[in-house]
Amino acid sequence: MAELRPYPFGVLVRRMFAELERDDAVFHLPRARFFTGDADLDLAVRFHGRRPSTPFGPAAGPQSQLAHNLVLSWLGGARVLELKTVQVNDAIEVPRPCIDMRTVGFNAEWSQELALEQSLEEYVKGAMLIELLRASGKLDLAPGMERTLFDMSVGYDLAGLKSESVGAFLGGMADCSAIVERLRREIPVEYKDLRGVDFPARLSDTLTLSTFHGCPPREIEAMAEFLLCERGLHCIVKLNPLLLGPRRVDELLHGALGYTHLRVPPEAFERDTRWEHMCEFVERLGESAAALERGFGVKFTNTLIVQNEGDFLPAEAREVYLSGAPLHVLAMDLVGAFRRRFLDRFPISFSAGIDRRNFADAVALGMVPVTACSDLLKPGGYARARGYFDVLGERMRAVGARTIDGFVLRAHDLGREALAGLAVSEGDRRRCAAAIEGDDGDLASLPDELRAAFLGAVALCNTERYVSSLPAVERYRHAATDRPPRKIGSALALFDCLSCDKCVPVCPNDANFRFELAPIELPLVRLREVDGAWQATSEGTLTIEKSKQYANFADFCNDCGNCDVFCPEDGGPYAVKPRFFGSLSDWRAFAHLDGFHLDGQTLRGRFEGVEVRLTRDGERSLFSGEGFTLRLDEADPLAAPRGRAEGEVDLAYFHLLCWVRDALLAADGLAYPALLAQSE
Question: Considering the domain 9-85+95-156+204-380 in this protein, what is its CATH number?
Answer without folding.
Answer: 3.20.20.70
